[in-house]
Specification:
Layout lengths: L1 E7 L3 H14 L4 E8 L6 H4 L6 E6 L5 H11 L4 E6 L2 E3 L4 H10 L3 E9 L9 E2 L4 H15 L3 H10 L4 E3 L1 E2 L3 E5 H6 L12 H11 L3 E12 L7 H22 L2 H14 L5
Helix pairs in contact: 9-10
Length: 271
């Protein structure tokens, strides 16, 4: 059985659509665990009160992505965990295909499906572990894809059509064996948000398991809308803080020094 873990912090209208669309294509043979990470908006419980058979975990404050998901994983009954963003929309049945892939390939530790935008265009959802060069190239490519560059978009549509091993897959929809997840102590709780999915994949890979991108199934990721003002400033600081921590944990001293020098020169706040 697969345990679906959905984490929310406000934006419960996304959560409602995520659960309802998932249940439309998966009426049975799973459990859903909803973790409310200390939401400050009122009324979210009323919005999902009609949804039956979900485990609800209420947290008094926002613990961050990793700690909240780790708490839910320990309470999960399934042998496979699906960490599913609350701003996702399910458009097809996919649990059976995922279970078959894990069964047929015991060396796989994590599976990531194809992730699409609401207009069905491609989101870049897997890649190589962060290094200075990888991040620079990715930043350029992501912008070109977002701007709908035909050459780049065509290249990635072809690349993303094939099942393949990757170094990481996005945490927006990430399947992992529960026993493996618990054996490596889940998400590193030093990350409040950002980089925790890549870092989890790094430790799974270091443990000898494969990370698979699996485009036979797909879902839509709304990406939660835009952030501006104080919220954007906070998110930018969290991103840099997590980036530095990841580099400190997994990358060379040289890359750590160059990263900090770049952030200082560019005037980017760490937090």
């Amino acid at each position: 059985m697969i345990s679906v873990i959905i984490l929310q912090y406000n934006n419960f209208h996304f959560t409602k659509e995520a659960i309802e669309s998932f249940r439309k294509y998966h009426p049975s043979e799973h459990e859903i665990i909803l973790v409310d990470n200390g939401s400050t908006d009122s009324g979210w419980e009323n919005s999902i009160s009609h949804i039956q058979n979900i485990k609800l975990i209420r947290l008094e404050s926002n613990l961050g992505f990793g700690p909240a998901n780790n708490l839910a994983a320990k309470k999960a009954a399934g042998d496979i965990l699906l960490f599913l963003n609350n701003d996702t929309v399910t458009t097809e049945s996919y649990l059976e295909e995922i279970e078959k892939e894990f069964t047929n390939n015991p060396g796989i530790g994590i599976i990531g499906p194809k992730i699409l935008n609401p207009d069905k265009s491609l989101q870049l959802s897997f890649g190589n572990f962060p290094t200075l060069m990888v991040e620079l190239v990715d930043k350029i490519l992501y912008r070109l894809v977002d701007k709908k560059s035909k050459t780049i978009t065509g290249y990635f549509e072809k690349k993303y059509s094939a099942k393949q091993f990757a170094q990481w897959v996005t945490g927006a929809a990430l399947f992992i064996k529960k026993d493996l997840f618990l054996s490596i102590n889940g998400f590193d709780e030093s990350f409040f948000m950002y980089f925790e999915d890549k870092e989890l994949c790094k430790r799974v890979s270091d443990s000898g398991y494969k990370i698979m991108y699996f485009p036979a199934v797909s879902l839509i990721h709304l990406r939660g809308g835009s952030a501006a003002g104080p919220k954007k400033k906070f998110l930018d600081q969290m991103y840099r803080k997590s980036q530095i921590y990841y580099y400190t944990k997994h990358n060379s001293k040289f890359e750590q020094i160059v990263l900090r020098l770049y952030l200082k020169i560019s005037g980017k706040k760490i937090g």
